[in-house]
Design goal:
Layout: H1 2-25, E1 53-56, E2 62-68, E3 71-78
Antiparallel strand pairs: 1-2, 2-3
């Protein structure tokens, strides 16, 4: 039983050393914030004014909004929420 435990410990140690060596072989590349943007600086379209939509919040309060041309035109608030 002790031989199996010793073998498991040695295997875990060897795996740890291998992973550590791999991590040192390939260090993370520095990221230039200017090149790391997820989207272009200027987006096409008119933002919220382009699309009319209904928004139902993800909070405990049960609120609903209808937005048209970028303005809230109707709301509903359920106080029992």
């Amino acid at each position: 039983m002790k031989i199996i435990q010793l073998a498991i410990i040695m295997l875990a140690f060897a795996i740890g050393l291998t992973r550590r060596a791999e991590a040192q072989k390939y260090p993370p590349m520095p990221i230039d914030p200017a090149k790391a943007a997820w989207s272009p600086a200027v987006l096409p379209g008119k933002g919220l004014m382009e699309h009319d939509f209904l928004y139902a919040g993800e909070a405990k309060e049960r609120k609903v909004f209808i937005v048209k041309k970028g303005q809230i035109v109707w709301t509903y608030d359920d106080p029992q929420g």
